[in-house]
Input
Amino acid sequence: MVASPRCQIRNADSRTRNTSLSGNTRSIASANIPPAIRLSCSSSAMSCLSACIPALPVGHIAEPFIDAEDIAEIAVEALTKPEHSGQLYELTGPRALTFAEAIDEIARATNREIRFAAVPPEAYRQALEQEELPAQLIDLVLYLFTTVLDGRNTPVADGVQRALGRPARGFSDYVRRTAATGAWANEG
Output
């Protein structure tokens, strides 16, 4: 899954397009796909679910998490089908949910007691500094959690439906698929 600050995909006639997120622009070949905040939580990143409380510097803000598979499918469509030329698709998942609600869904799917904890940004910064992460990365992460994920992206958009002719995959579907792989299996 991906939480995307209003992920937009545009197919136009030129071969190189620019992407931007909060003023940062980069060029990629043949698509306008902005950077996204990856939440698909690899098995190693999520293995802590059985032993820790996920803590992030976010409040009770809902985000319309979008499945990375939807983004990939639309990117292929936009790059290979002329009917998408000149189109702008604003991509979101089918419903907005808070990080606490997302963790609750994972807890139910894994039959575990997992709680989400919101922490103050400065406490989060200190924890990242203790892990000796680079200052620029810490600043970026805090910017994403405190500025980009501030609620401005809560409304659900119809880009997946318009681009693919079907509804966006939901977070619950992602959780069921991932839980079925054993990626979040209790290791203890």
Notes: The mean pLDDT is 78. Residues 2-181 form a domain with the Rossmann fold fold (CATH 3.40.50.720). Helices lie at 43-46, 68-80, 99-110, 121-130, 135-148, 159-164, 171-181. The CA atoms of residues 46 and 118 lie 17 Å apart.
